[in-house]
Design a protein that fits this description.
Elements lengths: L1 H6 L1 H4 L7 H5 L3 H6 L5 H15 L6 E5 L5 H8 L3 E6 L2 H7 L7 E5 L11 E6 L10 H14 E12 L1 H6 L4 E6 L2 E9 L3 E9 L7 E8 L3 H10 L2 E7 L14 E8 L3
Parallel strand pairs: 1-2, 1-4, 2-3, 4-5
Antiparallel strand pairs: 5-11, 6-7, 7-8, 8-9, 10-11
Helix pairs in contact: 5-6
Length: 262
């Protein structure tokens, strides 16, 4: 995997380094705002997935968009060989604290290929997809997943469920963390969720703003995306305990797809 990452450095530079996710996900404010992730929820989700997928003891797994590595860490604790990749340098620096003989992390752009016939399972957790402005880049990522999976390998995609998320949307919110004020404004349009974060920090001359944007993908959208790139949708679940998917009420959209054997 290290050789693959090294060879792809030139290709990564071709992408727009000024996209909102490049700037925001690598900032200290992002890590401060989202520091309190639910570790127990992540561990319970991994437990359910391992029971459902029944991977062999020597399975090779990729955590695509791994962030600071919390899901990768739980997967590796079960004895699997796990690689985590993420675009944000700051996240990878944090994740490397957990590295072991069977757990490794690399900075890498998911739009750049990350192997061929390498992994038994690719995981994409916590809506780490749907950020790209150009739809062709969504296809590029899914095609990279297809290439990286072994024949018959599995993709697990964990995504926001748009209908209930929009119903429960909190328009405005303010948080204070260690003296820094985060003013958060959320809205939607026909195709996207948006979140504007205004950061007031006494150490800065002026407030700074970041805008998150993620696409409203449905099951049909994912099925079309998968089918176009050699993956077959097998199952859909609605939460981290793998309960039945209800489009109107389920908090998550958990999709399991398989690489069609050639």
């Amino acid at each position: 995997m290290k050789n693959i990452i090294t060879a792809a450095i030139t290709d990564q530079r071709r992408h727009n380094n000024h996209a909102w996710f490049n700037q925001w996900f690598d900032s200290s404010f992002y890590h401060q705002l989202y520091a309190n992730r639910d570790e127990n929820e992540a561990a319970a989700f991994i437990h359910e997935l391992v029971n459902e997928l029944e991977p062999t003891a020597n399975s090779k797994m990729l955590d695509l968009g791994c962030g600071s590595g919390r899901h990768s860490k739980y997967l590796a604790s079960k004895g699997f060989e796990v690689t985590g990749i993420d675009l944000a340098s700051s996240s990878i620096r944090q994740a490397k604290r957990w590295e072991t003989e069977k757990l490794h992390f690399y900075r890498h752009d998911m739009r750049v290929p990350f192997g061929r016939n390498v992994f038994d399972i690719v995981f994409n957790f916590f809506t780490s997809f749907g950020y790209f402005e150009d739809p062709s880049e969504d296809h590029k990522v899914v095609n990279n997943i297809y290439s990286a999976l072994k024949p018959g390998g599995v993709l697990v995609m964990d995504y926001i469920n748009s209908i209930p998320a929009e119903k429960k949307l909190i328009g405005n919110e303010e948080k204070e963390i260690d003296g820094i004020i985060y003013n958060i404004n959320r809205w939607t349009n026909e195709t996207h969720f948006f979140k504007k974060i205004r950061i007031d920090n006494i150490a800065m001359a002026e407030p700074v703003e970041h805008i998150e944007r993620v696409k409203k993908f449905s099951v049909d959208d994912f099925q079309n995306l998968f089918t176009a790139n050699g993956l077959q949708l097998e199952k859909v679940y609605g939460d981290y305990y793998l309960n039945e998917y209800d489009p109107e009420n389920s908090p998550r959209l958990i999709l399991i797809a398989k690489k069609i054997k050639s």
